[in-house]
Amino acid sequence: MTDIRELLLSRIRDVADYPEPGVVFKDITPLLADPAAFTALTDALAEIAEGTRATKVVGLEARGFILGAPVAVRAGLGFIPVRKAGKLPGATLAQAYDLEYGSAEIEVHAEDLSPDDRILVIDDVLATGGTAEASLQLIRRAGAEVAGLAVLMELGFLNGRARLEPALNGAPLEALLTV
Ligand SMILES: O=P(O)(O)OC[C@H]1O[C@H](OP(=O)(O)OP(=O)(O)O)[C@H](O)[C@@H]1O
Ligand SMILES: Nc1ncnc2[nH]cnc12
């Protein structure tokens, strides 16, 4: 394992039975509080963004905002928030989905995505893939191209990668860590 992966892994805390019994929650707040780790993470994701030739970064509320916004700045790209339903004031596209511990609906401002865009989606954790899948569906419905999906951590045992194959349609899924 490379040094950066060891550093990132060492700053993610496992919290048993949160937010419900049987879930091991991957808490990234220790990583965010460590400037060396947060910078290394931002740099690694920005390198992925440059490799995908993305024109914009989409961040998934809420932890995808924390990771995606500095990556967009570092890579010189625009940032688009995909929010939980009811939070965006303009005309939106919406998509319902299920995740490891519940269900929800996400939205994006329709005007933020155009057919000229190549979008890299950024989030902290890929679990069942429900959230990421909904975001990719939103991007395609808006007519934009999916450049890829990049996450800090993939929970391999939940098989999100396989679920996402159709929605990715050949675009890369990059996970800095897989557990
Ligand atoms: O692959 P899935 O099963 O869809 O789960 C992954 C999603 O779950 C978490 O978000 P959550 O909805 O808990 O929101 P938060 O970032 O606001 O805490 C995480 O940040 C991902 O977005
Ligand atoms: N186990 C987990 N830890 C952190 N975020 C998550 N999102 C979905 N499952 C999660």
* CA-based shape: globular
Percent of residues in helices comes to 25-40%
Mean pLDDT: 97
Number of helices: 6
Q: Which residue ranges are poorly predicted, with pLDDT under 50 across at least 5 consecutive positions?
A: none
Rounded to the nearest angstrom, the distance between the terminal CA atoms is 13 Å
Strands in their spatial order, largest beta sheet: 5-6-4-3-7-8-9
Classify the beta-strand content into a percent band.
Answer: 25-35%
Cα-atom radius of gyration: 15 Å
Largest sheet: 7 strands, mixed
Helix-strand pattern? HEEHHEHEEEEHEHE
Task: Name the hetero compounds present.
Answer: 1-O-pyrophosphono-5-O-phosphono-alpha-D-ribofuranose, adenine
- Structural class, from secondary structure content? alpha/beta
How many beta-strand runs? 9
Subunit structure: Homodimer.
Enzyme class: transferase
Function: Catalyzes a salvage reaction resulting in the formation of AMP, that is energically less costly than de novo synthesis.
Family: Belongs to the purine/pyrimidine phosphoribosyltransferase family.
If you had to describe this structure to a student in words, what would you say it looks like?
The protein is an alpha/beta fold. Helix content is 36%, strand content 34%. It contains six helices and nine strands, in the order H-E-E-H-H-E-H-E-E-E-E-H-E-H-E. The protein has helices spanning 3-10, 29-32, 35-52, 63-75, 130-141, 160-168, and strands at residues 13-16, 24-27, 56-60, 78-84, 92-99, 102-109, 118-126, 145-154, 173-178. The strands form two sheets. A seven-stranded mixed sheet has the order 5-6-4-3-7-8-9, sandwiched between helices. Strands 1-2 form a two-stranded antiparallel ribbon. The chain starts with a helix and ends with a strand. 1-O-pyrophosphono-5-O-phosphono-alpha-D-ribofuranose binds next to helix 4, strand 7 and helix 5. This is Adenine phosphoribosyltransferase.
